[in-house]
Task: structure prediction
Amino acid sequence: MTPQMTLDDKLDKLLSILTGMESAIVAYSGGVDSSLLAQAAHMALGDKALAVTAVSPSLPQAELDEAVEVAKRIGIRHEFVYTDEMDNPDYLANPTSRCYFCKSELFIKLNPLAEERGYQHVIYGAMMDDRGDHRPGAQAAKEYQVQAPLDAADLSKDDIRELSKRYGLPTWNKPSFACLSSRFPYGQAITEEKLSTVEQAEQFLRDRGIRVFRVRHHDTIARVEVLPEDMPQLVQEPFRSEMVNRFKELGYTYVTMDLAGFRSGSMNEGTQLVSLSVEPR
Result:
């Protein structure tokens, strides 16, 4: 019987994988997983690791600002690329495979950058818990030969948070984040105006100290998800009135609270998810 790997064993495996790569570009969003990957890549590769953040309307400015600060704390070199998924009608149509088109656009930008700069690999933050989940982006990674060292090292989300805490990363207890396009029901077209509306609505919650939230966009209805312990705050005055007024300024007619609370990926509920078979463009 194979002995169970300890967290230190997994860390050693991760660093060994990264060292063997010799150089790498890290697809870095500033989230929990990619921040730990950037930290490990910097430890293993030093100046031969580069963190690159994709800038697009689906990334809130607050998340971009946090990514910059975390990269500075890590010490890794950090650059930006501007992605054009909003020019892709397949992405804008918002199918269940939307993430495939988003990740493809990212890797289409990162692979030539790696080749131009002499980096041997492009890596991203998929990890063990993502196995078997609805992850169209994983197919894009496979097609564009982008590797997932966290997954290869058998690191779970709990492992990643524990290591992040060990290295003093402020993301160790950061709530999971998905791009703003995940706030829309599949099949509802994505536009920059809608993304901006959701970003501003969520910024209202962030500014008032709510840490874990989603504002799901159902045309004229804003469906707000927060943790159960934060629900009383939403209905207390003056918070309730201020939220309703702000959301109506943004164009919502109705403001609702989802009594089921925050669920990552709640737009997948009741949706027939299909696997995707698409040739890379």
About this structure: DSSP finds eleven helices and seven strands in the chain. The longest strand covers residues 49-55. The beta strands are 24-27, 49-55, 77-82, 121-123, 213-218, 221-226, 254-257. Residues 273-281 have pLDDT under 50 and may be disordered.
